[in-house]
Structure formats: structure tokens, C-alpha cells
């Protein structure tokens, strides 16, 4: 796995932040936000470490492409693979919501301001750019597919990767997502009154919205026998995935969480497991009043009375909402939790919203049973929902 | 028993008009319907492209109410209308649920994104319209289709430039084949703003006039100098073949195989030269469908008039087919233009017997492109049609359709 978040370039800073329940949401400077309604976000710090061998053309890449490339290389190297990824039918399965929109904004500002603008800025705009950049960097020759389904994008990309591996289309999948902060999304979510003035507080009393973030996360997936045969140590098993649509409203979730519950059930069925097998949920948990109500309803619908004591993590309270990349970063956080045997605590200290009946992990990490399975959930605009069912890798 | 995805309905909107008959007529005449792009904002360069295959005003009220349309972006309107057209055509008894939605787009929601950012730039972020923001997210057309059709199955939007439509078709077919959906609405949608048109032109991607020739996309021709940008939407209905037959639905074709590959030698905005890898990818896809190039009766080429893209397309096809002759190669993008859903609709049309007019955009073979297009005339119904799309940036997608 590889990750780039507000805590830095690499998995290790993220691991430490998750363990400490420390938020990366705070003042930011990615763009001028003086006239915005809110003033916090989770911004990635400048530049990767000096030890990172920057590929040719690095400085011309969009921020989100840089996040993706760094995370992909970290993931591939951690998997014990070298690139170019020859000798396998490798594919890239990617999720993004805005891709190089930040750079497009700079292009448009230049055009409209009469100063002219470099075409290379708008070259970053296509939504397929980050996934293609990863494929190009890793020398991938198999299928490359990018999903842009708002906040469910990366989870749907991981689902696509799983299906592709199962069907034998690829034998190695580089899957994940990336997104960067930009003025359009920041202004848009503020216009919807969906951003908290403070770091977001999922499932807590007084929550008023999300906190936007940026970053990228990549997971390398391969069939278990292939991984074991080459001597790799699996980090976790992706047992199944589910997807659904609310078919209800473009931005508001279904009030009873019907679509989310459907995606959870489909994920469990795909993984051939029962609700009672799940011992840990990494929730979508945006912190908006309506989303958390809807998600809580879905969890109660699927897990019944057990929901009240089912450990729930809310990774967005720590890394912010990475939009199209959120499903990937939360899958990474879930795998880290299964590996360490602990569900990470949510950031913040406000009391929990008793009306939701959610057992949010707070304060310190919560130990998990060794064999417990986990669900990571992603729900997006347009009613797109996706869930991933993960199991810890228990070596023989 | 193996589940097979079959196409049972199609709705299409483009510069050629509404529905498959309108596209068939346009392909028969061999003349694209072109519109002068608004250049008043001054984005365009002197001597650059002036034309595009734009939608123009079209009455969508039979499929989308005026009140509902008012709450949608242009692409949402088009794709919802196309979905309703497709469902009407699929007709017959109701199908089982769930219905999935898989949409492809090259650039997402450009009109509203541009408009929203303009208001933020000119008037400040507090002027941002929630409606514009909501409708500028790339998957909004897919979401609107789900809402209007009650589709609670998987819902996703795929984005790989010129390959998006075929990737969507392949991804949708898999939902049926693997039993996650009883029905899938698969499609492609794109819109073309003056700014997007000007940017494509500045990249040298669009066809432009020369002293000798008028502005025209000339796929596979020696004098090609770019493609024709277009907008519109196409939606197909996919169902499991046996279930569709049982309810008496007409089947256009079944999806026999689909697959993709990537050319890492491609630049961010152009095509590479990775002929062997892409040819291998195409053969791999055919092999998964238990077919070989000799089984193909017709090719719907993604050749668009792009200098590098068409050269790559021709060479990949040539290498994949080896010394065997190629079946008739159709080049619908000369008429439909690039992006949107015209190519997808033409692919379905190509599974039928059809009459094609002489191809007015092709007159000189290119020695660097070892493929020439079908010269025009009547074609009987084929058994198998290969559709190909090589995208700028490196992605490639292929779909093999079989007639029933």
C-alpha cells in the first residue's frame, strides 16, 4: 500500500496519525480562501522526501498526479515488485472525482484574466490523467480504467480491480485514487452548507459538515496463490465488494439509508459472509448531519441491534474528505487496522450523537478480535454507493 | 449456464438527430451535420478549427419533462432522454431488478464547471450556485438516469477519453454476465463548450481547413489533420440474453468479449507507438471470447482523423490480423465526430445490414496507415463486429459484438 495525506508523503506518517487519532485538518494555503465561508482543510505538505526519485516531467504534473505516482511507487515497492511491471498482466484501476481541476482553474484564471495560460495546465484536466500517469510510470500494458463517481470513485475502482482479478483479465491490479483541493469543490460544498467551520466531527453532537482534504492512496492486489508463490506477505484479503445507487436525490442521501444498506448487503453477499462476521466498520462518516443519519440507519438495518457495540472508525475526521480518493485511503486505513488488530480512534472530543446509536471508536485505538472481518464504506453524490469487505491475513 | 449480455434497446442523440434511424440516414448520406462554434469569447486561434458536431436545439419533452429538464445540466437532459428512448425501444414485459447504470464520458461536465468557476472568479466564492455545483460533478448524468429510471443497481461513470464508451459497454456487460444486474443502462455522453473546442484546437487535435481542403475530419486519409469534436448522448439497454428472449425482446447483438490495454509510450495528451503491446491486448481480448481475427466480419474503427491516433489504430489492426485480409472497416467518426455517444450508436448499427454512402472524407490512402475504410455501399448483416477505441493518453478498449 502507499499513501499521501496531510500527514506527509508515505504510509508511515498516516499510520502514526491514525493511531493517535490526530486530525490533519487545519489552516491551509492551497488557494486563497479569504472570501470562503470556512477556512480549514487537510492539505498535503509540499513535495515528497528528497530520497524519492522524481520521474521525468514531475514538476509539470498536477498535484493529484504527483500524489498518485508517489503512492503507486510506494505500494509497488512495498509489495516487493519492481517496475516496469513486466511479466504480468497488470492493470490500473483508478478513482478520482476532480483530477486536475486545481490546475484547470489556474488555466482558466489565466485565460479570463488575459494573461494567457500554459496549455500544460489544462492537460492535467482530463479525469483519466492520474490513472494514466500511474500506468505510464509503472509501464503497465494491461487494462487501465478510471471511475469518476464522486466520493465512491476509488471504492468502485477497487471493486473493478477485484472483478478483473477474479475474471482473470489481470493478474496484478494497481488500484486506488487521488484528488486535490481546489476552489470549485471548496466553494461548492460551502455553497451547499456542507463544510464544518472546524475539523469535521462525524457521528458527534454538533457536527455541521465535512472537512475537505487531499491526497492519494494505492493498493496492490493480486490473486492470493500468486502472491504466496512469489513469497509476498499479504497484508489483508479483499473478500468482496458491493455497489448500489440510492436513485433518490443528487446530493441528499436516502433518509433511511436504503441505498447504503443495499451496498452493504451486496458486499457481504459477494464476500460470502454474514453480517455477524463483521467486527469493524470503517464508515463513510463525512460529518454532515444528513449523511451520518443515513449511514447510521443503514448500519442498523444491516447489523441490527449489534450496531450499538460494533466498532466504527471515521477516517475522514483524521485525513479529511479526499472525495474520489476517499474509498482508497479508507481501505488503506482499514487494512492497517486489521494488521495492527486495532480500530483507529476518530479525532475530536465532542460527545457522540446518541440518536445515531453508533459505537464510534474514540480516544484510543480499540482492540479487534484477531479474526474479525471489516467493511469500508463509501457513498457519493448521485447516490453512488460502494462497500469493500476485508479480512486480516492470518498466516498459517 | 453462462450468462450473456444482449443489447435490447438504444437511444441516441447527436448532431445527426434523434434515434438510430437518424444516425443511419446520416451514415448513408456520408455528410456530417456541422455547426460553427461560437468564437466570440476570443479563445480560438486564428486559422484554427471552426466547426463541431453540436446538438443544437432538440425537443426532448417526449422523454424529459420541461420541469425536470430545468433542474438538469445539458448532458443530464440528453442522457436521461436517451435512456428513456432506449427503454421504450427495449419494450416488452418488465424486467427483473436491479438495473445498473454505467456511463462513459471523456471530459465530464464542462459547461456547468466552466460556468460555476466563472461566477466564483468574477463574483467570489459566495456566489457559487449549489445547483451548478451539484450538476458539475462527472457522475451526475449517471445519477440522474438512476433517479429517473429507479435504477438501484451499481452506478458508475468511467472516464478514459476516447475509450470511455467501449469501456462502459464492457463494464456494463460484466454486470449482467456476473449476475449483479438484470438490466444495465450503458452509455456515453459529452458536451463541447467553445472553450473546450478552442483548447483541443490549440493542442492541434481538431481538423482544420488548409489551402487545398475544407475543414473536415478525414479518418485514415493521408491528408487528415485532426478530428471533429462532437456532443450528444447514447444509451443502450443490456439484458441477459435468455431472459430478454423469454420476454420477447428484440436483440440487436450480444456482447461476446471485451477488454482493454494500455500503451505506456503515449504522452499525457497524445497517442504512442506501442503497436505490439496493443495488438497483443486486442488478441488477448478475442481469445477470452474464444475468437480470433479471422472470425470478425466487420470493424467499427475508432479512427477519427487524428494524425497519430489513426496511424496507431491502423498499425494495431494490421499487426493483430497478421497477413489475413481485414474485413470492411467502418469509420463512423467522420460523421458522428469524436466523443459523446455517436460512435457507440454506430457500433450497434454496424451489427445490422446497412447501407453506407461513399465516404466523402477519404480519397487518398496513407502509406503510413496500413488500413483503408470501406468505400461505401450495402453491407449484409455480419456475424461478428469488432469495435475499437484507442484513447489519447494511452488507454485502449475493444468490444466484440455477435449478432443473434
Spatial order of strands in the largest sheet of chain A: 2-1-6-5-3-4
Strand content of chain A: 15-25%
pLDDT under 50 segments of chain A (min length 5)?
A: none
Query: Distance N terminus to C terminus of chain B?
Result: 17 Å
| Number of strand elements of chain B | 15
Q: Please give the count of helices of chain A.
A: 12
Describe this structure in words.
The complex is a heterodimer of chains A (396) and B (404). Chain A folds into two domains: 2-229, Peroxisomal Thiolase, Chain A, domain 1; 236-392, Thiolase/Chalcone synthase (Peroxisomal Thiolase, Chain A, domain 1, 3-Layer(aba) Sandwich), CATH 3.40.47. With 396 residues, chain A is an alpha/beta fold. Chain A is built from twelve helices and 14 strands. Chain B is of the alpha/beta class and 404 residues long. Chain B is 32% helix and 20% strand. Chain B has helices spanning 20-29, 66-70, 74-90, 110-123, 130-134, 140-149, 164-177, 194-202, 241-246, 275-288, 307-321, 333-336, 342-349; strands spanning 5-14, 17-18, 35-36, 51-52, 99-104, 155-158, 183-190, 232-240, 253-262, 298-300, 329-330, 354-356, 377-379, 384-390, 395-402. The chains are: A alpha/beta (396), B alpha/beta (404). At the A-B interface, helix 3, helix 4, helix 5, strand 4 and helix 6 of A face helix 4, helix 5, helix 6, strand 6 and helix 7 of B.
Amino acid at each position: 500500500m502507499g499513501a499521501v495525506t496531510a500527514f506527509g508523503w508515505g504510509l508511515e506518517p498516516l499510520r502514526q496519525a491514525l493511531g493517535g487519532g490526530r486530525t490533519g485538518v487545519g489552516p491551509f494555503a492551497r488557494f486563497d480562501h479569504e472570501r470562503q465561508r470556512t477556512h480549514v482543510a487537510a492539505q498535503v505538505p509540499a513535495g515528497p522526501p528528497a530520497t524519492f526519485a522524481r520521474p521525468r516531467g514531475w514538476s509539470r504534473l498536477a498535484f493529484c498526479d504527483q500524489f498518485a505516482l508517489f503512492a503507486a511507487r510506494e505500494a509497488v515497492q512495498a509489495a516487493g515488485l519492481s517496475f516496469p511491471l513486466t511479466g504480468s498482466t497488470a492493470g490500473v484501476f483508478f478513482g478520482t472525482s476532480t483530477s486536475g481541476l486545481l490546475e484547470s482553474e489556474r488555466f482558466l484564471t489565466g485565460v479570463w484574466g488575459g494573461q494567457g495560460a500554459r496549455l500544460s495546465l489544462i492537460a492535467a484536466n482530463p479525469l483519466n490523467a492520474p490513472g494514466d500517469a500511474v500506468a505510464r510510470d509503472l509501464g503497465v500494458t494491461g487494462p487501465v480504467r478510471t471511475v469518476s463517481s464522486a466520493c465512491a470513485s476509488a471504492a468502485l475502482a477497487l471493486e473493478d480491480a477485484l472483478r478483473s482479478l477474479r475474471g482473470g483479465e489481470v493478474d496484478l491490479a494497481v488500484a486506488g485514487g487521488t484528488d486535490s483541493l481546489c476552489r470549485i469543490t471548496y466553494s461548492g460544498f460551502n455553497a451547499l452548507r456542507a463544510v464544518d467551520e472546524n475539523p469535521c466531527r462525524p457521528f458527534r453532537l454538533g457536527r455541521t459538515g465535512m472537512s475537505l482534504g487531499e491526497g492519494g492512496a494505492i493498493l496492490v492486489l493480486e490473486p492470493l496463490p500468486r502472491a504466496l508463490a512469489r513469497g509476498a506477505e499479504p497484508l489483508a484479503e479483499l473478500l468482496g465488494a458491493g455497489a448500489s445507487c440510492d436513485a433518490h436525490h443528487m446530493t441528499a442521501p436516502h433518509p433511511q439509508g436504503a441505498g447504503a444498506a443495499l451496498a452493504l448487503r451486496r458486499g457481504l453477499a459477494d464476500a460470502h459472509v454474514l453480517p455477524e462476521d463483521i467486527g469493524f466498520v470503517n464508515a463513510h462518516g463525512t460529518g454532515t448531519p444528513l449523511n451520518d443519519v443515513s449511514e447510521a440507519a443503514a448500519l442498523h438495518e444491516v447489523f441490527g441491534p449489534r450496531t450499538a457495540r460494533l466498532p466504527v472508525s471515521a477516517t475522514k475526521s483524521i485525513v479529511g474528505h479526499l472525495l474520489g480518493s476517499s474509498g482508497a485511503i479508507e481501505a488503506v486505513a482499514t487494512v492497517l487496522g486489521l494488521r495492527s488488530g486495532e480500530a483507529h480512534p476518530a479525532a475530536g472530543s465532542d460527545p457522540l450523537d446518541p440518536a445515531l446509536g453508533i459505537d464510534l471508536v474514540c480516544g484510543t485505538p480499540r482492540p479487534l478480535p484477531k479474526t474479525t472481518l471489516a467493511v469500508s464504506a463509501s457513498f457519493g453524490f448521485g447516490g453512488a454507493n460502494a462497500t469493500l469487505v476485508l479480512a486480516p491475513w492470518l498466516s498459517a | 449456464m453462462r450468462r450473456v449480455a444482449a443489447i435490447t434497446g438504444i437511444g441516441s442523440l447527436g448532431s445527426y438527430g434523434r434515434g438510430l434511424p437518424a444516425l443511419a440516414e446520416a451514415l448513408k448520406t456520408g455528410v456530417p451535420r456541422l455547426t460553427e462554434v461560437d468564437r466570440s469569447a476570443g479563445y480560438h486561434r486564428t486559422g484554427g478549427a471552426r466547426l463541431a458536431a453540436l446538438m443544437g436545439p432538440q425537443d426532448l419533452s417526449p422523454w424529459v419533462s420541461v420541469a425536470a429538464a430545468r433542474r438538469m445540466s445539458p448532458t443530464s437532459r440528453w442522457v436521461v432522454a436517451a435512456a428513456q428512448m432506449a427503454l421504450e425501444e427495449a419494450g416488452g414485459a418488465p424486467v427483473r431488478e436491479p438495473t445498473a447504470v454505467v456511463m462513459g464520458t471523456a471530459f465530464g461536465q464542462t459547461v456547468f464547471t466552466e460556468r460555476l468557476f466563472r461566477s466564483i472568479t468574477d463574483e467570489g466564492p459566495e456566489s457559487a450556485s449549489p445547483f451548478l455545483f451539484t450538476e458539475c460533478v462527472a457522475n451526475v448524468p449517471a445519477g440522474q438516469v438512476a433517479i429517473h429510471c429507479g435504477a438501484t443497481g451499481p452506478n458508475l461513470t468511467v472516464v478514459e477519453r476516447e475509450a470511455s464508451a467501449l469501456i462502459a459497454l464492457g463494464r456494463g456487460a460484466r454486470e449482467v454476465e456476473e449476475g449483479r444486474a438484470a438490466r444495465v443502462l450503458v452509455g456515453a455522453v459529452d458536451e463541447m463548450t467553445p472553450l473546450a473546442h478552442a483548447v483541443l484546437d490549440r493542442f492541434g487535435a481538431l481538423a482544420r481547413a488548409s489551402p487545398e481542403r475544407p475543414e473536415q475530419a478525414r479518418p485514415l486519409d493521408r491528408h487528415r489533420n485532426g478530428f471533429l469534436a462532437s456532443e450528444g448522448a447514447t444509451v443502450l439497454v443490456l439484458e441477459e440474453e435468455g431472459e430478454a428472449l423469454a420476454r420477447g425482446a428484440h436483440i440487436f447483438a450480444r456482447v461476446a468479449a471485451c477488454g482493454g490495454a494500455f500503451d505506456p509510450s503515449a504522452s499525457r495528451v497524445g497517442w504512442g507507438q506501442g503497436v505490439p503491446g496493443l495488438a497483443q491486448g486486442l488478441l488477448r481480448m478475442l481469445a477470452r471470447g474464444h475468437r480470433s481475427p479471422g472470425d470478425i466480419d466487420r470493424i467499427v474503427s475508432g479512427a477519427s482523423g487524428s494524425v497519430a491516433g489513426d496511424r496507431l489504430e491502423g498499425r494495431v489492426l494490421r499487426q493483430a490480423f497478421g497477413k489475413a485480409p481485414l474485413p470492411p472497416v467502418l469509420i463512423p467518426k467522420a460523421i458522428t465526430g469524436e466523443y459523446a455517444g455517436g460512435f457507440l450508436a454506430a457500433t450497434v448499427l454496424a451489427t445490422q445490414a446497412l447501407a453506407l454512402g461513399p465516404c466523402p472524407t477519404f480519397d487518398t490512402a496513407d502509406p503510413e496507415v496500413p488500413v483503408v475504410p470501406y468505400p461505401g455501399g450495402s453491407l449484409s448483416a455480419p456475424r461478428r463486429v469488432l469495435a475499437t477505441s484507442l484513447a489519447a493518453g494511452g488507454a485502449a478498449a475493444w468490444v466484440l459484438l455477435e449478432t443473434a
